[in-house]
Design brief:
alpha/beta, Rossmann fold, 6-stranded mixed β-sheet, disordered C terminus, binds 3'-phosphate-adenosine-5'-phosphate sulfate, phosphoadenylyl-sulfate reductase (thioredoxin) activity
Length: 271
Protein backbone atom coordinates (compact mmCIF):
# COMPACT_ATOMS: atom_id res chain seq x y z
CA UNK A 1 0.00 0.00 0.00
CA UNK A 2 1.28 3.48 -0.85
CA UNK A 3 2.03 5.78 2.08
CA UNK A 4 0.63 9.32 2.27
CA UNK A 5 4.19 10.62 2.23
CA UNK A 6 4.36 9.03 -1.23
CA UNK A 7 1.45 11.28 -2.16
CA UNK A 8 3.83 14.19 -1.62
CA UNK A 9 1.80 15.75 1.17
CA UNK A 10 3.44 17.93 3.82
CA UNK A 11 3.13 17.17 7.54
CA UNK A 12 0.97 18.79 8.83
CA UNK A 13 -1.18 19.23 5.73
CA UNK A 14 -1.11 22.71 4.24
CA UNK A 15 -4.51 24.41 4.15
CA UNK A 16 -6.69 24.99 2.23
CA UNK A 17 -6.74 21.42 0.93
CA UNK A 18 -7.57 21.10 -2.76
CA UNK A 19 -10.23 18.64 -3.95
CA UNK A 20 -7.72 16.42 -5.75
CA UNK A 21 -5.57 16.04 -2.61
CA UNK A 22 -8.73 15.28 -0.61
CA UNK A 23 -9.68 12.55 -3.09
CA UNK A 24 -6.16 11.07 -2.95
CA UNK A 25 -6.18 11.10 0.84
CA UNK A 26 -9.59 9.41 1.00
CA UNK A 27 -8.48 6.72 -1.44
CA UNK A 28 -5.48 6.14 0.85
CA UNK A 29 -7.45 6.16 4.13
CA UNK A 30 -10.51 4.16 3.05
CA UNK A 31 -9.06 0.65 3.46
CA UNK A 32 -7.28 1.47 6.75
CA UNK A 33 -8.45 0.45 10.24
CA UNK A 34 -9.78 3.17 12.60
CA UNK A 35 -6.53 2.99 14.58
CA UNK A 36 -4.51 3.52 11.41
CA UNK A 37 -6.72 6.43 10.39
CA UNK A 38 -6.28 7.99 13.82
CA UNK A 39 -2.50 7.56 13.65
CA UNK A 40 -2.53 9.27 10.26
CA UNK A 41 -4.71 12.06 11.67
CA UNK A 42 -2.31 12.73 14.53
CA UNK A 43 0.59 12.93 12.09
CA UNK A 44 -0.96 14.95 9.30
CA UNK A 45 -3.86 17.03 10.60
CA UNK A 46 -3.07 20.56 11.81
CA UNK A 47 -4.33 21.66 15.24
CA UNK A 48 -6.47 18.57 15.81
CA UNK A 49 -9.30 18.33 18.38
CA UNK A 50 -12.03 15.75 18.96
CA UNK A 51 -15.60 17.03 18.99
CA UNK A 52 -17.66 14.55 20.98
CA UNK A 53 -21.04 14.10 22.65
CA UNK A 54 -19.60 10.92 24.20
CA UNK A 55 -21.63 8.69 21.91
CA UNK A 56 -20.40 5.11 21.50
CA UNK A 57 -18.41 5.90 18.36
CA UNK A 58 -16.59 8.86 19.88
CA UNK A 59 -15.86 6.76 22.97
CA UNK A 60 -14.21 4.10 20.80
CA UNK A 61 -12.02 6.80 19.24
CA UNK A 62 -11.14 8.20 22.68
CA UNK A 63 -10.11 4.74 23.88
CA UNK A 64 -8.10 3.98 20.73
CA UNK A 65 -6.32 7.33 20.96
CA UNK A 66 -5.38 6.66 24.59
CA UNK A 67 -3.53 3.56 23.36
CA UNK A 68 -1.89 5.27 20.37
CA UNK A 69 -0.54 8.47 21.90
CA UNK A 70 0.34 9.97 25.25
CA UNK A 71 -1.08 13.34 24.19
CA UNK A 72 -4.46 12.71 22.57
CA UNK A 73 -6.31 15.60 20.93
CA UNK A 74 -8.27 17.71 23.45
CA UNK A 75 -12.02 17.09 23.55
CA UNK A 76 -14.75 19.64 22.79
CA UNK A 77 -18.20 18.96 24.27
CA UNK A 78 -21.11 21.20 23.30
CA UNK A 79 -23.30 21.34 26.36
CA UNK A 80 -26.77 22.23 25.08
CA UNK A 81 -27.91 22.40 28.73
CA UNK A 82 -30.54 19.79 27.82
CA UNK A 83 -28.47 16.62 28.01
CA UNK A 84 -29.57 13.75 30.22
CA UNK A 85 -28.05 13.56 33.71
CA UNK A 86 -26.50 10.23 32.64
CA UNK A 87 -24.58 12.03 29.87
CA UNK A 88 -23.15 14.58 32.32
CA UNK A 89 -22.10 11.67 34.58
CA UNK A 90 -20.40 9.99 31.63
CA UNK A 91 -18.40 13.16 30.88
CA UNK A 92 -16.99 13.01 34.41
CA UNK A 93 -16.25 9.28 34.10
CA UNK A 94 -14.37 9.81 30.83
CA UNK A 95 -12.38 12.68 32.33
CA UNK A 96 -11.21 10.58 35.25
CA UNK A 97 -10.57 7.45 33.19
CA UNK A 98 -8.62 9.07 30.33
CA UNK A 99 -7.48 12.36 31.85
CA UNK A 100 -8.16 14.09 28.54
CA UNK A 101 -8.93 17.81 28.76
CA UNK A 102 -12.60 18.48 27.97
CA UNK A 103 -13.51 21.97 26.77
CA UNK A 104 -17.19 22.55 27.45
CA UNK A 105 -19.05 25.09 25.30
CA UNK A 106 -22.58 26.23 26.16
CA UNK A 107 -25.07 28.50 24.36
CA UNK A 108 -23.65 32.02 24.37
CA UNK A 109 -24.22 33.87 27.64
CA UNK A 110 -25.98 30.89 29.27
CA UNK A 111 -24.68 28.88 32.19
CA UNK A 112 -27.96 27.22 33.12
CA UNK A 113 -31.36 26.26 31.67
CA UNK A 114 -32.78 29.20 33.58
CA UNK A 115 -30.41 31.58 31.72
CA UNK A 116 -31.31 29.90 28.43
CA UNK A 117 -35.06 30.20 29.03
CA UNK A 118 -34.69 33.82 30.10
CA UNK A 119 -33.03 34.51 26.76
CA UNK A 120 -34.99 32.26 24.40
CA UNK A 121 -38.16 31.32 26.27
CA UNK A 122 -39.43 27.86 27.17
CA UNK A 123 -39.21 24.93 24.76
CA UNK A 124 -37.21 26.90 22.23
CA UNK A 125 -36.74 23.65 20.26
CA UNK A 126 -40.50 23.59 19.61
CA UNK A 127 -40.96 27.31 19.00
CA UNK A 128 -38.00 27.72 16.63
CA UNK A 129 -36.16 24.49 15.90
CA UNK A 130 -33.63 25.91 13.41
CA UNK A 131 -32.65 28.68 15.79
CA UNK A 132 -32.43 26.18 18.65
CA UNK A 133 -29.99 24.00 16.66
CA UNK A 134 -27.95 27.06 15.82
CA UNK A 135 -27.68 28.47 19.34
CA UNK A 136 -27.03 25.17 21.16
CA UNK A 137 -24.70 23.46 18.71
CA UNK A 138 -23.60 25.38 15.62
CA UNK A 139 -22.61 28.71 17.22
CA UNK A 140 -20.93 27.19 20.32
CA UNK A 141 -18.91 24.87 18.05
CA UNK A 142 -17.72 27.83 15.95
CA UNK A 143 -16.85 29.74 19.11
CA UNK A 144 -14.76 26.80 20.36
CA UNK A 145 -13.03 26.36 16.98
CA UNK A 146 -12.21 30.06 16.79
CA UNK A 147 -10.98 30.23 20.38
CA UNK A 148 -8.51 27.37 19.94
CA UNK A 149 -7.74 28.05 16.25
CA UNK A 150 -8.97 24.52 15.53
CA UNK A 151 -8.18 23.44 11.98
CA UNK A 152 -9.15 19.76 12.19
CA UNK A 153 -11.54 17.66 14.25
CA UNK A 154 -12.32 14.00 14.82
CA UNK A 155 -16.02 13.15 14.72
CA UNK A 156 -18.01 10.07 15.76
CA UNK A 157 -20.11 9.71 12.62
CA UNK A 158 -20.41 6.46 10.66
CA UNK A 159 -21.77 5.70 7.15
CA UNK A 160 -23.88 2.85 8.56
CA UNK A 161 -25.93 5.45 10.47
CA UNK A 162 -27.51 6.20 7.08
CA UNK A 163 -29.29 9.36 5.96
CA UNK A 164 -26.87 12.20 5.23
CA UNK A 165 -24.05 10.01 6.60
CA UNK A 166 -24.52 7.13 4.14
CA UNK A 167 -21.78 8.38 1.82
CA UNK A 168 -19.43 9.52 4.59
CA UNK A 169 -15.74 9.61 3.69
CA UNK A 170 -12.81 9.24 6.12
CA UNK A 171 -11.84 12.91 5.62
CA UNK A 172 -14.07 15.88 4.76
CA UNK A 173 -13.55 19.62 4.41
CA UNK A 174 -16.50 21.72 5.57
CA UNK A 175 -17.74 25.06 4.23
CA UNK A 176 -15.40 26.94 6.60
CA UNK A 177 -12.35 24.91 5.60
CA UNK A 178 -12.36 22.77 8.76
CA UNK A 179 -10.99 19.25 8.21
CA UNK A 180 -13.20 16.50 9.68
CA UNK A 181 -11.74 13.05 10.26
CA UNK A 182 -14.23 10.21 10.64
CA UNK A 183 -12.04 7.30 11.80
CA UNK A 184 -14.93 4.86 12.29
CA UNK A 185 -16.70 5.81 9.07
CA UNK A 186 -16.76 2.16 7.95
CA UNK A 187 -17.80 0.49 11.22
CA UNK A 188 -21.31 -0.70 12.01
CA UNK A 189 -23.15 -0.58 15.33
CA UNK A 190 -22.40 -4.20 16.41
CA UNK A 191 -18.67 -3.65 15.81
CA UNK A 192 -18.72 -0.46 17.89
CA UNK A 193 -20.62 -2.24 20.69
CA UNK A 194 -18.16 -5.14 20.53
CA UNK A 195 -15.15 -2.79 20.92
CA UNK A 196 -16.77 -0.97 23.88
CA UNK A 197 -17.44 -4.26 25.73
CA UNK A 198 -14.11 -5.87 24.84
CA UNK A 199 -12.14 -2.84 26.07
CA UNK A 200 -14.35 -2.01 29.03
CA UNK A 201 -14.89 1.54 27.73
CA UNK A 202 -17.20 3.71 29.88
CA UNK A 203 -20.61 4.19 28.23
CA UNK A 204 -23.84 6.04 28.80
CA UNK A 205 -25.99 4.16 31.37
CA UNK A 206 -29.03 4.96 29.21
CA UNK A 207 -27.84 2.34 26.72
CA UNK A 208 -28.85 -0.33 29.24
CA UNK A 209 -32.38 1.10 29.29
CA UNK A 210 -33.17 0.76 25.58
CA UNK A 211 -31.57 3.94 24.21
CA UNK A 212 -29.06 3.53 21.37
CA UNK A 213 -28.14 7.08 20.29
CA UNK A 214 -28.34 9.80 22.91
CA UNK A 215 -28.82 13.54 22.38
CA UNK A 216 -30.98 16.09 24.23
CA UNK A 217 -33.56 14.56 26.59
CA UNK A 218 -36.43 16.33 24.80
CA UNK A 219 -35.62 14.80 21.41
CA UNK A 220 -34.28 11.36 22.34
CA UNK A 221 -36.35 8.24 22.95
CA UNK A 222 -35.78 4.51 23.42
CA UNK A 223 -35.74 2.24 20.38
CA UNK A 224 -37.35 -1.15 20.05
CA UNK A 225 -35.35 -4.31 19.33
CA UNK A 226 -34.46 -4.40 15.63
CA UNK A 227 -35.10 -0.67 15.08
CA UNK A 228 -32.48 1.56 13.52
CA UNK A 229 -29.86 2.84 15.99
CA UNK A 230 -30.88 6.47 15.34
CA UNK A 231 -34.66 5.86 15.29
CA UNK A 232 -34.91 7.37 18.77
CA UNK A 233 -33.51 10.73 17.68
CA UNK A 234 -36.27 13.22 16.75
CA UNK A 235 -38.64 10.21 16.47
CA UNK A 236 -41.64 10.83 14.25
CA UNK A 237 -39.94 13.76 12.50
CA UNK A 238 -38.09 13.92 9.19
CA UNK A 239 -35.16 15.57 10.93
CA UNK A 240 -32.08 13.36 11.34
CA UNK A 241 -29.28 15.85 12.08
CA UNK A 242 -28.70 18.59 14.64
CA UNK A 243 -27.00 20.90 12.13
CA UNK A 244 -23.50 20.58 13.55
CA UNK A 245 -22.28 18.75 10.45
CA UNK A 246 -24.26 20.77 7.94
CA UNK A 247 -23.11 23.84 6.04
CA UNK A 248 -22.49 26.59 8.63
CA UNK A 249 -23.66 29.42 6.36
CA UNK A 250 -26.88 27.58 5.43
CA UNK A 251 -27.60 26.82 9.09
CA UNK A 252 -27.04 30.46 10.02
CA UNK A 253 -29.32 31.68 7.22
CA UNK A 254 -31.99 29.08 8.11
CA UNK A 255 -31.88 30.09 11.78
CA UNK A 256 -32.29 33.77 10.83
CA UNK A 257 -35.07 33.11 8.30
CA UNK A 258 -37.02 30.97 10.74
CA UNK A 259 -36.50 33.45 13.59
CA UNK A 260 -37.83 36.14 11.24
CA UNK A 261 -40.97 34.18 10.41
CA UNK A 262 -41.51 33.36 14.11
CA UNK A 263 -41.39 37.08 14.91
CA UNK A 264 -43.84 37.78 12.11
CA UNK A 265 -46.13 35.04 13.45
CA UNK A 266 -45.96 36.45 16.98
CA UNK A 267 -46.63 39.92 15.57
CA UNK A 268 -49.65 38.77 13.54
CA UNK A 269 -51.04 36.86 16.54
CA UNK A 270 -50.73 39.98 18.71
CA UNK A 271 -52.09 42.45 16.18
N1 LIG B 1 -23.10 18.01 21.85
C1 LIG B 1 -22.05 17.66 21.09
N2 LIG B 1 -20.80 18.02 21.46
C2 LIG B 1 -19.73 17.69 20.70
N3 LIG B 1 -19.82 16.93 19.57
C3 LIG B 1 -21.03 16.54 19.18
C4 LIG B 1 -22.20 16.90 19.88
N4 LIG B 1 -23.26 16.36 19.24
C5 LIG B 1 -22.78 15.70 18.18
N5 LIG B 1 -21.44 15.80 18.12
C6 LIG B 1 -20.53 15.23 17.11
O1 LIG B 1 -21.32 14.58 16.10
C7 LIG B 1 -21.15 13.16 16.20
C8 LIG B 1 -22.43 12.47 15.89
O2 LIG B 1 -23.37 12.77 16.89
P1 LIG B 1 -24.83 12.18 16.89
O3 LIG B 1 -24.87 10.89 16.17
O4 LIG B 1 -25.30 12.22 18.30
O5 LIG B 1 -25.71 13.12 15.98
S1 LIG B 1 -26.02 14.66 15.99
O6 LIG B 1 -24.78 15.33 15.49
O7 LIG B 1 -26.38 15.07 17.35
O8 LIG B 1 -27.10 14.81 15.04
C9 LIG B 1 -20.64 12.95 17.61
O9 LIG B 1 -20.02 11.69 17.76
P2 LIG B 1 -19.66 11.09 19.21
O10 LIG B 1 -18.24 11.48 19.46
O11 LIG B 1 -19.83 9.62 19.03
O12 LIG B 1 -20.60 11.66 20.21
C10 LIG B 1 -19.70 14.11 17.73
O13 LIG B 1 -18.54 13.92 16.95
Amino acid sequence: MASTSALGLPKPLALPLCQSDLAKINAYLSPLTPEEILRWGIEYLPNLYQTTAFGLTGLVAIDMLSKITTSPPPLIFLDTLYHFQETYELVEEVKSRYGAPVHVYKPEGCETVRDFEAKFGEKHWVVDEANYDFVVKVEPAQRAYETFHVQSIITGRRASQGGARASLQPLEVDSKGLLKLNPLFAWNFPLVEWYIKENNVPRNKLLDQGYRSVGDWHSTSKVAEGQDERAGRWAGKEKTECGLHEDYFKMKAKAKAQAGSQNLLRFSIRS
